[in-house]
């Protein structure tokens, strides 16, 4: 099964689909071939003659509790989505159990150990391989091919890497990947613009510029309060956090410590043991010694760093496009706080490349003896259709503006939707005409307008992400300039990875942290040797064997 297409084809396909949808919707009300009749003719959206029951297990979170408060009478068990699935598809969803998100996989592992599987469940890559090896889940190759609607297949082929490769075990599709946009994980430098202005500094063009800004933000009183109470760079205890981590910083040194790279000879090597990482760690160590990084970063997770940002203690944060909402609370303590996204910068004479890991970490699988495996595909079809298809009801099922989509047990989405929304908004801005905006782009435009015209704070983060000089404008340029570096390994974990990957990743984190804290920089060489001897060399061999097989197909 090959679902991969180029980004260019995806962009063109999305535009063509939008045009076709407009043409269909322009038909007179009396026409026979209405959008709903046309779409729902596909067997992937057929209703079962007799309603069926589908059992699942679920996760509860603060977000969902907040959502239940916004929609009185609706809960994770019974809500607009469960009603829709029952009414349109004849699928009655029952949850065997629901636990807090942090305990979901622990509870699931216990249930799997005792053979207690619901009809459909979400698992990680290791659990999928274990269940497949034990014969406890079904091969979904033909099921997906037959029941996925053309729109579902199109949406799931939008990723720049083929998400189905990660779900293939012995040439069988053992799960439907929960596809999360890899491009949305692009990192930017979020900088306090007001601090730059206070110190009469220009935005960074090179790594040297960025290091000079970090030093100035630490020692030159950027908030002009007369106190030595600021740091240059935010660093969380987990160095690879999507906000406050160091992935974007290290990329400036051509160091890519969390992905697999392809050498000139076609072999894959692990980025975390390459010499460029050593240089980046050496610079971070000097920044730590100089006080540019909080001396207690080892004890501070993302929430604690966010509190420091809120209090006006930090002026540089590497983070994804949604970091605008993460830093927004700093406006509470300083009304003039002004954050702006900037592209990552290079320490060499080469343009920087942003490393992107594949985001296929979880999969929906079906119990081996469940009679209706196609029900899982039907749920995905309808979720996509009611949010982005020809019969979409965006404000009822996706954003009201509260995120009603979170009530659905399956939540696939077009992974290019955010980038496309930016492009739609930019096109409207250039034309001076917002009348053509619809769906997500229209909702974002309304929030930005409410901020610009009425001072509604809810639109500030949207402006910083989607404006002409916002985060997505940078992503757009990085794509056009071929500055995205994708992880080359996307298959299910190898035997050695299942056994040792967590150990190796923890060892890597320990070494990196301690070097930043002041351990000899040559400890990096010891780490490389440990990594290779503990299992890294074996893992590299297994990964290259799989990579060669895929290349030969």
Automatic annotation (TrEMBL):
SUPFAM superfamilies in UniProt: Periplasmic binding protein-like II
Top-level taxon: Bacteria
Keyword Membrane annotated: yes
Keywords from the named record: Cell membrane, Lipoprotein, Membrane, Palmitate, Signal
UniProt-listed InterPro entries: Bact_solute-bd_prot1, SBP
UniProt feature coiled coil, ranges: none
Signal peptide limits: 1-21
Keyword NAD appears in the UniProt entry: no
Pfam family, one: SBP_bac_1
Name under which the protein is recorded: Putative aldouronate transport system substrate-binding protein
Source organism of the structure: Gracilibacillus halotolerans
């Amino acid at each position: 099964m090959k679902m991969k297409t180029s980004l260019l084809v995806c962009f063109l396909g999305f535009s063509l689909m939008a045009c076709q949808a407009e043409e269909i919707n322009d038909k007179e009300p009396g026409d026979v071939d209405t959008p709903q009749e046309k779409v729902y003719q596909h067997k992937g959206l057929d209703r079962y003659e007799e309603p069926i029951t589908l059992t699942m297990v679920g996760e509860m979170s603060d977000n969902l509790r907040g959502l239940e408060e916004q929609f009185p009478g609706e809960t994770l068990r019974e809500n607009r989505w469960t009603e829709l699935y029952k009414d349109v598809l004849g699928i009655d969803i029952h949850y065997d159990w629901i636990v807090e998100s942090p305990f979901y996989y622990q509870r699931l592992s216990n249930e799997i150990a005792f053979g207690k599987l619901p009809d459909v469940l979400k698992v990680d890559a290791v659990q999928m391989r274990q269940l497949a090896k034990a014969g406890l889940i079904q091969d979904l190759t033909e099921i997906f091919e037959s029941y996925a609607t053309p729109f579902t297949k199109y949406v799931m082929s939008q990723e720049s890497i083929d998400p189905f490769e990660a779900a293939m075990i012995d040439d069988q599709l053992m799960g439907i990947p929960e596809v999360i946009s890899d491009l949305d994980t692009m990192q930017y430098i979020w900088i306090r613009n007001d601090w730059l202005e206070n110190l009469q500094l220009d935005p960074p063009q090179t790594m040297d510029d960025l290091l000079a800004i970090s030093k100035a933000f630490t020692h030159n009183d950027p908030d002009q309060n007369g106190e030595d109470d600021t740091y240059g760079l935010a660093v969380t205890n987990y160095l690879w956090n999507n906000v406050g981590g160091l992935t974007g910083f290290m990329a400036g040194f051509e160091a890519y410590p969390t992905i697999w790279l392809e050498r000139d000879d076609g072999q894959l090597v692990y980025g975390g043991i390459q010499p460029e990482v050593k240089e980046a760690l050496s610079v971070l160590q000097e920044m730590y010694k100089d006080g540019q990084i909080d001396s207690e970063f080892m004890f501070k997770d993302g929430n604690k760093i966010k509190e420091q940002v809120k209090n006006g203690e930090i002026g540089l944060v590497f983070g994804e496009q949604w970091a605008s909402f993460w830093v927004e609370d700093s406006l509470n303590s300083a009304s003039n706080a002004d954050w702006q996204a900037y592209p990552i910068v290079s320490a060499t004479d080469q343009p920087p490349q942003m490393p992107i890991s594949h985001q296929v970490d979880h999969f929906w699988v079906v119990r081996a003896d469940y009679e209706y495996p196609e029900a899982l595909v039907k749920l995905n079809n309808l979720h996509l259709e009611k949010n982005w298809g020809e019969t979409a009801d965006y404000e009822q099922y996706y954003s009201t503006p509260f995120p009603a989509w979170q009530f659905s047990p399956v939540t696939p989405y077009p992974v290019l939707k955010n980038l496309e929304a930016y492009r739609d908004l930019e096109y409207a801005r250039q034309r001076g005409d917002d009348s053509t905006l619809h769906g997500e782009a229209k909702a974002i435009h309304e929030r930005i307008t409410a901020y610009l015209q009425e001072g509604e704070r809810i639109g500030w983060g949207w402006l910083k992400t989607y404006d002409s000089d916002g985060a997505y404008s940078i992503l757009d340029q990085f794509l056009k300039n071929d500055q995205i570096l994708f992880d080359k390994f996307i298959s299910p974990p190898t035997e050695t990875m299942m056994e040792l990957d967590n150990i190796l990743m923890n060892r890597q984190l320990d070494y990196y942290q301690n070097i930043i804290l002041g351990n000899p920089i040559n400890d990096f060489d010891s780490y490389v040797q440990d990594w290779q001897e503990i299992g890294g060399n074996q893992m590299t061999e297994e990964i290259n064997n799989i990579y060669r097989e895929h290349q030969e197909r």
